[in-house]
Amino acid sequence: MDVKELRKLFPILDQEVNGKPLVYLDSAATSQKPLPVIEAVNNYYREYNSNVHRGVHTLGTKATDAYEGAREKVRRFIGAKSTEEIIFTRGTTTAINLVAASYGRANLREGDEIVITYMEHHSNIIPWQQVAKQTGATLKYIPLQEDGTIRLEDVENTVTPNTKIVAVVHVSNVLGTINPVKQIAEIAHRNGAVIVVDGAQSTPHMKINVQELDCDFFAFSGHKMCGPTGIGVLYGKKALLEKMEPIEFGGEMIDFVGLYESTWKELPWKFEGGTPIIAGAIGLGAAIDFLEEVGLDQIAKHEHKLAQYALEQMSQIEGITIYGPKERAGLVTFNLDDVHPHDVATVLDAEGIAVRAGHHCAQPLMKWLNVTATARASFYLYNTEEEIDKLVLALKKTKEYFSHVF
Ligand code: 7TS
Hints:
alpha/beta; Aspartate Aminotransferase, domain 2; four-stranded antiparallel β-sheet; binds ligand 7TS
């Protein structure tokens, strides 16, 4: 993988911020977009913008082919059996909410359990809190180990025959922990539960095969994998999706509409009410082509190297606390002595370095870590070791600066 060549495809990276070359280390929040994605969206609007599934005219057919073609690309990309199992959503959040509101409300009652972990993003916590309140089900948490990993033993002890849904993040957006989803799925299934996997931070960075993982539902966002914002995917096993009711009603998703009763289209369209996210899906299709061309294995290898290098270099900074396990995905979350992470991010920004500071939409995890906020540097295929060197140097400067201020 030639990162220097790859970077040429990301025009945004070639700029100065605050007089310094941009070092973008916030891809876990959203990734940058390569030219083939920008051009695919641009071409759609310039050349064949039309609504889809409406039949006759040429542009409409072209748009429909591109939209449904993107669905097939997603199917192949995550190893699903059929395009009936691929539902386009606005993102991971919308996808998980769909499962909670449709599958959750229909299948949970008092005495049932929903099992999640302490390392979930808010979008894999709140939908379950809501559906627990609505149905009388109980929410339970799988505990974490000191290093931010999960032991299968603790999964075994938390999941019971009363558990109906297990919802886990594949890769933590804070700790970088890679969870043993396949083994957790096996435990869930043995207890008669379904498993929902939040793949927002795994899908952009590693080869996913939903059949091999044997997950029942799998959610991810296009914008974290070189695609546009506003598009994401819910994968669900056909047998489950077939029995589920839509949660949004209107155009596009219907078969027959009478005065008092209506019927729905078949899968996957019954879950895609209204004019769909056409440009977004086409852009996501182009992102998938791009990622496959680079190679997911290559990307994973590159990021692993970057993460290990960053851990090695950053852990030498005096007074730094790094959260999460050694074996991790491409991100490092940290705090620097008594310097508030927002101040860290502000000083880094003055150096042209973009990192995220805050609770990372994981307040229960922040509580578990006993902090209110952290800073996070996250990497993608276009990042380099030189950029990590710049980060380390800037962090040393930050520490120096604040030691004089206070
Ligand atoms: N799940 C995980 C693990 C995430 O990291 C995120 C977004 C989401 C779900 C929600 O995705 P969305 O596309 O629906 O918003 N995470 C982050 C982040 O870490 N910083 O900004 C957004």
